[in-house]
Amino acid sequence: MTGYLFPLPPPAALPILGQSTEFPVNRIFCVGRNYAAHAAEMGSEVDREAPFYFLKSAHAVRKSGTILPYPPGTADLHHEIELVVAIGLSAFRIGADDAMSAVWGYGSGLDMTRRDLQARAKDKRHPWDLSKNFEGAAAISALTPAAGFTPCAQSIRLEVNGDLRQEGQVSDMVWTIPELIADLSRYYHLAPGDLIMTGTPSGVGAVGPGDRLAGGVEGLAQVELTIGPAE
């Protein structure tokens, strides 16, 4: 009998509103610069020829309401509130007109970023992995099935310690959800369990130990996260 050298870690999974089952997470595709105002505040322009992406591993997932120890290797941890799209059907080379058929549901998420490491990577033209893909870098709410939510012009906002930090609308996205799914499916066999974090509005900023983050997309479950002391 074939065995494993050490026990497999438990799968990353997210709760589903109104259900006892959970949504197992496969991959996390993140869209860069999908809100023009955020791109501008970061000193960048939107590439309107095609979207671009970075990935987070499933080990980055944290459920809403948890405490995230302040991550190692950074002195400038930033929040980014986002609409999360959960994929429920396989999709490869799918057209934008059919892309929404692959969507299982939606949630609110926080793309946590080690901004100083990202800035260093940009200066050296290096990948962003250290800044974006770390334990706890993707805090995500309970998911709402697609039948209960239609993305359009809903507000998306984030408060830190009760003060408004980020605010925008889903309709402000440069690349729509069908366009993103169609484009990603040119490069990947999208599969059930994949998540797409669709970008953040302007207003990103630093957080530190003791800060309480709460926000999300109107009509979806809120995501909450507390920043704990560094380990």
From TrEMBL:
Pfam family, one: FAA_hydrolase
All residue ranges annotated as the Fumarylacetoacetase-like C-terminal domain in the record: 28-226
Any one GO molecular function term: metal ion binding
InterPro entries with a match to the protein in the record: Fumarylacetoacetase-like_C, Fumarylacetoacetase_C_sf
Keyword Metal-binding appears in the UniProt entry: yes
Source superkingdom: Bacteria
UniProt keywords, alphabetically: Hydrolase, Metal-binding
Matches recorded under PANTHER family: ACYLPYRUVASE, FLUTATHIONE S-TRANSFERASE
Record protein name field: Fumarylacetoacetate hydrolase
Organism taxonomic ancestry: Bacteria, Pseudomonadati, Pseudomonadota, Alphaproteobacteria, Rhodobacterales
